[in-house]
Write a structure and sequence with these properties.
Layout (H helix, E strand, L loop, with lengths): L1 E7 L11 H4 L4 H12 L4 E7 L3 H10 L6 E5 L3 H4 L1 H9 L4 E5 L21 E4 L4 H13 L5
Parallel strand pairs: 1-2, 1-3, 3-4, 4-5
Length: 147
């Protein structure tokens, strides 16, 4: 069985109750279940990790540097200035997709640039929790699991 890394950054552990008008009503557990369903046909399991600390996310990326087929990463606000997160993802050898629940470009100006997006295999924004499932589908294609 192959493992897909699902990483979520600060404040994403409170999805479902955090500004539902922006982030929706799905909880992180709902998202984890949807991603697991999406990749189950390829016999992938999902390792879901959420931290409010950048250092913990960096540690998890480094810990799972090998042994995973790819990653879905929602860095939350760390997209803006998460330089150590960026460096850890630069060293991650598998494809990974950056995901944001809200359309960051329709929001405050400070959210309009991601320091990690240029390294990602792709970016999905503004589609709510559906974005995670789309990222999982993309990773299945990138890893050749749909062939």
């Amino acid at each position: 069985m192959s493992t897909l890394l699902l990483l979520n950054g600060p404040n994403l552990g409170i999805l479902g109750r955090r500004e539902p008008e922006i982030y929706g009503t799905d909880t992180l557990a709902d998202i984890e279940k949807a991603v697991a369903t999406e990749v189950s046909g390829a016999s992938w399991e999902v390792l879901s990790l959420q931290h409010d600390s950048e250092g913990d996310l960096v540690r998890d990326i480094n810990r799972h540097h090998s042994g995973t087929v790819g990653a879905i990463v929602n860095p939350g606000a760390l997209m803006i200035a998460g330089w150590s997160l960026r460096d850890a993802l630069a060293a991650y050898p598998q494809p990974w997709i950056e995901v944001h629940l809200s359309n960051v470009w329709a929001r405050e100006q400070f959210r309009h640039e991601s320091v990690i997006a240029p390294l990602a295999s792709g970016v999905v924004v503004g589609l709510g929790s559906l974005g995670y499932r789309l990222a999982a589908q993309a990773l299945l294609e990138l890893a050749g699991a749909n062939r």
